[in-house]
Write a structure and sequence with these properties.
The protein is α/β, with parallel strands linked by helices. Helix content is 30%, strand content 16%.
Length: 858
């Protein structure tokens, strides 16, 4: 049944927002005032509040209360009901104005089937039966013609929706479809983490920031992108922490720092290695920590650059019962020692520097050196003068900062996605994490190397719902988005569908804006390569306009769901405050109806006798029972009462990454959900943090140790040497304070705060050379694409940098598409293994060169 739309005005919204803000300061008095304000708007004093969770891809995971009258949301306020007082209240203006999306003009009201050309808003309304019959018929045709793996699904940021996103994955499992890893698709996979630690990612929860005494920020801007948690960085400073920001541009976070260094784009590894050279030269490293937890004492063969295997050395043997994903290597302390990968128990006198001759079982001998000794030689190249030349980091500051890094503890390095969204983002992360390891700053409260991106990491097991345990032979096909754009490569280890991807089911993302690199996606639809695109979004986005059928889902105010986030320790529910708007349906219902049309025997795996919310509750119960130690003792009834803290192994109320490895000497890595341990443990076969990598591709490319490589040399300049002179501006697409990626692009009030205009930021000197004035419409262009936006002249930008706040829909950039400028480069290091969302080709959004000119509009 069609629901009545709520008419929102700016005055109404600002009034409600003001009351909500007062509630934060005045508690119950203001809450009563809020009730009165909402009641006055509704014409009644009968209001209900429903607690739910705001969970876009921002990591906030903020508890919200919807004020409901006559089945409509009249206002949204922060719940402020977390056990840890530091997290109260949580929220931002985007979440408080979410009603704009629920009731706005782009809100879907029911299924649509395309009638016009791709990209045109030409659809006809359809019943659910017709739309689902059409979709299932097309899917069966494509599966019969090309194979089931030619159907791809993508669900973004699994932590934001275990139940409904799980329903999509369960459908892919039953049918053998390809599942695209949203994490690497978004460029959010910090490849340094699996390479070094064997994990998808690890990070301090944000309320641990004040426990650090020295904070270094690389490629992260939490004052703009993590609004609910930004106060923790300020509180860290108030608590005595020193904050240093390394960023080409003067960001909001740089404005709060004690020191800001405007380094060259993608030069972070050089800066880190400059610090490392000082720490090594002055013997400021923690030798015991290095010997106990890292691979740096392990011997490296001088003849081939490989680690020395215990199985090859006279007098040594491989430990009994060693798992297949492990390997036994060798260290030396006057005698050759087998390094058991299942133990972190090397004696503290093992050699770190020097060369030894090793007798081998075949009767020959080989010279070998510890990886630490090779590191020392490599780091010697990174003198302060060379680092300044490579990075613009002042040479006279490098020694001082290095000494502070080595002596002030806890040290916390914040490494943001903007920094690993480069072709060599993995090298930067490896060098920065080495800083933490050399100084013993891993595994303690307030220290560590944190990789911060979107709401990415799963906090508990989900296989009981995402897979189909009753049918263990059923599994989805893993696939990487990079190959959907590039096609297969000679170095890939990811399976590739024989006929490529022919159908795409999209949930919770807007890829025809957000991932339209080189305009490839739009062309694939226009040229018929993608024969079916199915969109589950509850809004009519750009992706909707390139879809063949729209099966609209619902918002988090219209369904039951279970969510978590990497940056705070709570598992929470979404609970329906209103009935679905129009004829929209919860995604679990959509998948159940679709699955049974493909194969009637599938219906029984979706709780067919229950309505979608009751079915979702059964999934939540199942997940709590099977979700592992993090959910031990947590029940649906507990979650209905409010957020519940996830369990962790270390003492105290704050979770400490790698605590078990450092304090209990459990080998690396800890498990990274949803992958089983053997799938990721093979990344660090030694059972230790690995800073020397001996897989063939690392050796071939000269990246066995973390080194600095300049941007563009292996990408833009290799693609076309003329680009070196032709396009000289680095094009950076940063996250906006006004959006969560594409979400809120059409939010009326957030658009008003931006003067309803997409912006491009330029250095004033660069703009003057181009004849561009503040407010001019400019064209950013290269041989691949173009972008039209309004110029903002910012003296805080480094010269020869062009910044665009990503997330704008094409309708707001004069029909242009900002990611058409970017090429989908694939780093072969990212292809050594393939475990979806763990080790896979990560999108290099920032590896892009452009030029800028004043736009001419016909």
């Amino acid at each position: 049944m069609e629901k009545k739309e709520l008419s929102l005005t700016r005055r109404t919204f600002l009034g409600a927002a003001a009351v909500a803000g007062a509630a934060t300061a005045l508690g119950g008095v203001a809450l009563a005032a809020n009730e009165q304000e909402a009641a006055a708007q509704a014409g009644s004093d009968e209001l209900t509040y429903v607690r739910t969770t705001c969970a876009p891809n921002c990591t906030g995971g903020c508890g919200m209360k919807a004020c409901v009258h006559n089945g409509e949301i009249k206002s949204i306020i922060q719940a402020a009901d977390y056990e840890d007082a530091e997290h109260n209240p949580r929220g931002c203006l985007k979440g408080l104005s979410f009603s704009n999306l629920i009731y706005g003009p782009e809100r879907m009201k029911g299924p649509l089937i395309r009638t016009g050309a791709p990209g045109e808003d030409e659809f006809r309304e359809a019943s659910w039966d017709e739309a689902l019959d059409y979709t299932s018929s097309e899917l069966k045709r494509i599966m019969d013609t090309y194979g089931p793996e030619s159907v791809a699904v993508v669900v973004q940021v699994a932590g934001t929706g275990h139940v409904h996103k799980g329903a999509v994955i369960r459908t892919a499992t039953l049918n053998g479809w390809s599942v695209l890893g949203g994490y690497e698709m978004n460029g959010d996979l910090p490849m340094s983490a699996p390479i070094t630690f064997g994990v998808q990612s690890e990070e301090l929860e944000t309320f641990c920031w004040p426990d650090a005494k020295y904070i270094m920020v690389f490629g992260s801007n939490p004052m703009a992108t993590r609004i609910p948690d930004a106060h923790f960085l300020v509180e860290a400073k108030e608590n005595g922490s020193k904050v240093l920001v390394f960023d080409p541009n003067y960001s909001a976070t740089a404005s709060k720092a004690d020191e800001w260094y405007s380094i060259k784009p993608s030069s972070d590894a050089a800066v880190a290695l400059g610090f490392i050279k000082v720490i090594l030269d002055e013997e400021l490293y923690d030798a015991d920590f290095v010997r106990t937890y890292t691979d740096l004492p392990l011997l490296i063969r001088s003849d081939n650059g490989k680690r020395l295997l215990a199985a090859d050395v006279q007098g040594l043997s491989v430990p009994a019962g060693m798992p297949e994903y492990r390997e036994a290597y060798v260290a030396y302390n006057g005698s050759f020692l087998t390094v058991d990968p299942q133990k972190l128990d090397l004696p503290l006198d093992v050699m770190l520097d020097g060369t030894v001759t090793v007798p081998l079982k075949d009767g020959s001998s080989v010279q070998a050196r510890p990886a630490f000794s090779l590191l020392r030689d490599m780091a010697a190249e990174y003198t302060p003068e060379k680092v300044q030349e490579e990075s613009d980091m002042p040479a006279d500051q490098i020694v001082r900062i290095a000494r502070e890094v080595a002596t002030i503890k806890p040290l916390h390095i914040m490494y943001g996605a903007s920094n690993y969204q480069w072709y060599h983002g993995d090298l930067k992360g490896r060098a920065l994490s080495l800083l933490c390891a050399l100084t013993g700053n891993i595994g303690h409260l307030g220290d560590g190397f944190s990789t911060y991106a979107g709401q990415y990491r799963m906090r508990y097991k989900g296989g009981a719902w995402w897979n189909v345990p009753e049918l263990p032979e059923k599994s989805p096909a893993g696939f990487s988005f990079a190959y959907m754009l590039n096609g297969p490569t000679e170095t890939m280890t990811c399976p590739y569908p024989k006929h490529g991807i022919k159908a795409w089911i999209i949930y919770c993302c807007n890829p025809f804006d957000q991932h339209n690199m080189g305009n490839i996606l739009r062309r694939q639809v226009e040229e018929g390569q993608l024969e079916l695109v199915v969109n589950l979004d509850f809004q009519k986005t750009t992706t909707s306009k390139y879809s063949h059928v729209c099966l609209p889902g619902v918002s988090w105010y219209e369904k039951t769901e279970m969510v978590s986030t990497p940056v705070h320790p709570y598992v929470q529910l979404m609970q329906p405050a209103i009935e679905p708007v129009g004829d929209c349906k919860p995604e679990l219902w959509i998948m159940r109806e679709l699955a049974k049309r493909i194969d009637p025997s599938f219906e029984k795996y979706y709780y067919p006798d229950l309505d979608p919310n009751a079915a979702a509750e059964e999934v939540i119960k199942l997940t709590c029972e099977t979700g592992g130690p993090e959910l031990k003792g947590i029940t649906l009834d507990m979650l209905k009462k409010g957020p519940v803290k996830l369990r962790h192994e270390n003492p105290g109320r704050k979770r400490i990454p790698f605590y078990e490895q450092i304090h209990d000497k459990v080998p690396f890595p800890p498990v990274s959900y949803p992958s089983p341990l053997p799938a990721t443990a093979k990344f660090v076969k030694s059972g230790r943090m690995e800073f020397y990598k001996d897989e063939d591709m690392f050796l071939k490319l000269g990246e066995a140790l973390p080194v600095h490589k300049r941007p563009y040399e292996e990408t833009e300049y290799a693609l076309d040497p003329s680009i070196r002179e032709k396009y000289t501006f680095s094009y950076l697409t940063r996250n906006s304070i006004h959006r969560v990626h594409s979400t809120h692009s059409n939010n009326t009030f957030m658009r008003e705060l931006q003067d309803d205009s997409a912006k491009v930021w330029l250095n004033p000197d660069d703009a003057a050379e181009k004849g561009i004035a503040h407010g001019d419409l400019v064209e950013v262009y290269n041989d691949r694409g173009r972008l039209l936006a309004e110029a903002v002249l910012d003296p805080g930008l480094k010269k020869k940098i062009c910044i665009f706040d990503e997330g704008w829909w094409s309708r707001y950039t004069h029909g242009t598409s900002y990611n058409t400028l970017i090429h989908p480069f694939i780093n072969p290091i990212h292809e050594i293994y393939f475990v979806s969302q763990m080790w896979a080709p990560n999108t290099s959004w920032n590896e892009c060169l452009v030029d800028v000119r004043k736009a001419v509009i016909d």
